[in-house]
Design brief:
alpha+beta; 3 domains; 17 helices; 14 strands
Length: about 500
């Protein structure tokens, strides 16, 4: 169903559950290393494997990180809270229950304001609670990497027990046609905040930050909430937006045909841009929550909470206003930078020495184009702000021009090395030698006598045609300013 038709008939309600994997040195309830990758099942112990008699101990650093996240999201911090057992069977969960928090989360009743096209949307945070991650299932032999069609499955428990914070919003209402963009902007700004706090790498491509997208539709103007679906483990900003848009259209087709929505989890397929059914969605009572008997309650003192409040980074809204003033960006330039998810990247590039407009030009031009072509978030491109700043420095130093700089970007993105290495390997340096340039200018003059006559008659603007001919002859590597000087000297 066309998106405009969906909006004419239905109101969307959004809900987002974002899992943040903390960067603590050890796991949530044991001393095993909390690292990405490694030899399968090497980073495990009786506690994170759920062996009989093993006793958990809470990671204090994880509690600290949870409180700081909650404070940054304007949440209340519980004076007393408990862990609970969330009971269900899945092969990658060795204990057959997940140690999480249920009715007593450590953080609750917060909010985050996000900007979309100059309009501010308040996303209310219901809770942010502590829990442990599961292991990772590897389905072998199929074409999709999923269990359906696989020959067999393997389980790596290295990730089991790594500290997670799950941030759950209340239903986001009233976004209308902007619902997909609001979802994307919220996850992008949340990631920005998490990185600023220093509590997680927040790499969506590595699973440090994962979003579950809840969506429902209700008849236009009814004020009711429809039956929701939950699209699990969406791992990029772009995919969050696409998943919301697709589910809105899928729900609308079913409802307009007289059908009903099944409350279920769904899988997002990045390659096709669709969702498929996972399993019927369980409600809280299905998990048979009960307080974790092996862990004492967590009761952060008000003095400790106040100390942690002092460590918070600058408020995102205040920060953006400050950066815009410092950089001299117009409202539209700043809005486009934020919308592209490139604010932090531009800031880091400027910190590496690039001028603000130059940093913005490359990230929102060449690199945003590459991001769209490759279907990845701009933050996941294989290039760093330091690389971008160095390429701009090469332009400033007249080692390369803008056209050649694009080839340098191409080389860095292809893994050919640093910007300087790409310039050397590809032979991209601008030619400023008068001997080589003079020969190319003579050839262009000889090939274009009519243009040369115009310049001799005082029509200096005609020099552009000869400059273009020289640039073509020298594959774009000529120093255009020096070429112009030589042309005018020869024809004066």
């Amino acid at each position: 169903m066309p998106f405009d038709d969906v909006l004419a008939a239905y109101d969307p309600a959004l809900g987002l559950e974002v899992h943040v994997e903390l960067n603590t040195a050890s796991k949530m309830f044991c001393g095993c290393p909390a690292v990405f990758g490694g030899e399968p099942n090497a980073g495990t112990c009786p506690t994170c494997l759920g062996l009989p008699g093993a006793m958990p101990v809470v990671n204090g650093k994880a509690v600290e990180s949870a409180i700081r996240i909650g404070l940054a999201l304007n949440c209340d911090i519980a004076e007393w809270c408990r862990f609970a057992r969330k009971n269900y069977f899945y092969p990658d969960m060795p204990k057959n229950f997940q140690t999480s928090q249920y009715d007593e989360p450590i953080c609750f009743d917060g909010y985050m304001d996000v900007d979309v096209d100059g309009e501010t949307y308040r996303v209310e945070i219901e809770r942010a609670h502590m829990e442990e991650d599961t292991g990772k299932s590897l389905h072998v032999g199929g074409s999709t990497g999923r269990i359906h069609g696989a020959d067999h499955s393997l389980v790596d428990y290295n990730r089991a027990g790594i500290p997670l914070i799950e941030i759950v919003t209340r239903p986001i209402l009233g976004a209308g046609e902007k619902a997909p963009e609001v979802a994307k902007a919220y996850v992008a700004q949340l990631r920005e905040l998490i990185v600023a706090l220093g509590v997680s790498e927040a790499r969506m491509d590595q699973g440090n930050l994962r979003a579950d997208v809840n969506l429902s539709l209700s008849p236009k103007g009814s004020g009711a909430l429809g039956t929701r679906t939950e699209t699990k483990n969406v791992n990029s900003f772009r995919s969050v937006e696409r998943a919301v848009r697709y589910e809105m259209q899928r729900h609308a087709v079913i409802l307009s045909g007289g059908g009903s929505i099944l409350q279920e989890t769904r899988h997002w397929h990045e390659d096709t841009g669709i969702t498929t059914s996972g399993r019927e969605k369980s409600d809280a009572e299905d998990y048979r929550y009960f307080p974790e008997p092996d862990l004492v309650p967590v009761a952060p003192s008000r003095e400790w909470v106040d100390e942690l409040r002092e460590t918070l980074p600058e408020n995102p809204t205040v920060r953006r206003a400050r950066l815009q003033a410092d950089w001299g960006f117009s409202d539209m330039e700043m809005r486009d930078t934020i919308g592209a998810g490139a604010l932090g990247l531009v800031e880091e590039t400027i910190a590496e020495g690039a001028a603000p407009q130059a940093a913005r030009k490359w990230w929102l031009g060449e690199l945003a184009r590459r991001s769209n072509e490759d279907g990845v978030d701009i933050v996941d491109l294989p290039i760093t702000p330091a690389d971008v700043a160095r390429i701009q420095a090469l332009v400033d130093e007249k080692v390369v021009n803008d056209k050649l700089a694009r080839q340098v970007f191409e080389g860095v993105l292809a893994g050919e090395g640093s910007p300087d290495e790409v310039v050397e390997k590809r032979g991209l340096a601008v030619v400023s030698d008068d001997g080589a340039l003079g020969a190319a200018v003579d050839k262009a003059i000889a090939a274009n006598p009519d243009v040369a006559d115009k310049i001799r008659d005082g029509k200096v603007a005609a020099a552009g045609a000869l400059i273009g001919a020289v640039m073509k002859e020298m594959r774009g590597q000529a120093d255009a300013a020096r070429v112009r000087e030589l042309i005018l000297e020869k024809l004066s």
